[in-house]
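Q: I'm writing up a methods section and want to include an example of the input and output format. Could you take the sequence below and give the corresponding predicted structure tokens, formatted cleanly so I can copy it straight into the document?
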Amino acid sequence: MEALKEPGQGVIARFSNLKGLTIPVAPHKGCGSSGGSGKSSCGSSAGSGDLPSEIWEKVKNHPCYSEEAHHHYARMHVAVAPACNIQCNYCNRKYDCANESRPGVVSERLTPEQAAKKVLAVASEIPQMTVLGIAGPGDPLANPDKTFQTFDFVFKAAPDIKLCLSTNGLALPDYVERIKDFKVDHVTITINMVDPEVGARIYPWVFFRHKRYTGKDAAKLLTERQLEGLEMLTQAGILCKVNSVMIPGINDDHLVEVNKAVKSRGAFLHNIMPLISSPEHGTVFGLSGQRGPSAQELKALQDKCEGEMNMMRHCRQCRADAVGLLGEDRGAEFTTERIESMEVEYDAAKRRSYRDSVEIEREVRKAAREQELLTLAGENSDRKILVAVATKGGGKVNEHFGHAKEFQIYELSVAGSKFVGHRRVDLYCQGGYGEEDALAGVIRAINDCVAVFVAKIGGCPKEELRKAGIEPVDQYAYGYIETATISYYRSYLERLKNGELVDIERGDAMIRQGAFIELSAPAGQAA
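A: Here is the clean output for your methods example:
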């Protein structure tokens, strides 16, 4: 690789081939953005006015640490860490898999040199990529040389990219100083228990300093090392996110205690994720029939923990080689074979320009949201409702109903519009035709929502949604999600006051929150 500077273009890093890779030190120019004081959720309403400036600078364009940022900025993971030092009953690592979307799965393993070139290739074609994470497919700190060599290459070639790692925490206390040395200022630790009795049901064994531990001894060692590492990181000023997998009947109630424990040790954010337990994945839990939580169960637990600390609700449980915005994966565009034939140009100025434009957009969006919130002034309703939104990014209602692979869920109240989760679904529109089974699946996925916001929707799904008590809303197409949903909520309250809607309760296990029947609807269209 050679580094050169072209007039007006800043530092450009070029790769012509993979062999003999050397990376020069480029000047560190920081994030290069103009700031931006829009509210960054981080799982809460924390924004530039709520956080110390040094913390805000770390989270404002990090898609995993800021819910608002995830609409605009992308991340990528590189699969340089195949070995793992613990066994989890919910994990089955796969190194050549393109068909599963879950942690521990990659299409191909990379050397640090290959990973560095891939990072620059992705960052050159995806200017919104701001974060490099190493998350496996094993544990980064069980592969320390490969992990830190990759960080070294990338930091020297592209210092504007944030460096992150995700770890199970067993080896963490031994590497805090190296993490600091490489300017890694975001670390995620997966902590599923603080009680060895619970942990013994999740972890069959851990391998630590040439010795294998099992049962409660393994869980006790693991939790002690995790909490020690968390404390060391927070004392060093490194932002820590804690991931926890919600396993019904095993640790679901216990995660409230985990939440308290990690908060008391300085964790910045807690991400409670649903167990993925399909039998075809080959995990112990999957093969034993252990179920994952419903979306409603997950939200209830997140709500219960939110009073203790910030909750992350926009996690997509990414593959260990994911590329792009959260909720999308462009990894197939950047195979090693393709990258080897590319001449990569890393244009730092172009990337700064993109971030500057994003910050301007965020200010516009923030102003629009705050203006719309004023219309709720004086409302004293305690009613909260959920709505689903079809979006492909940018914080806008900009996806066709039939093309949506997921719906983002917002909770509406007099306080405004709050992101609370997402629901993955099968595509309804396939080959130009609607799939009845897929539509039924979409309705099941969002049946606790009173409305679904879309850029466009056909007549047939409109009718079926109305029959299910879900209002299809397309009049806000391509508008900002927050302003659209706040406007809808105001209209919803007005219709309720005017007697145009009546509340209903469904007799099945899924009790709707604020579901309604339109009194003017034709007979048979209300559920």
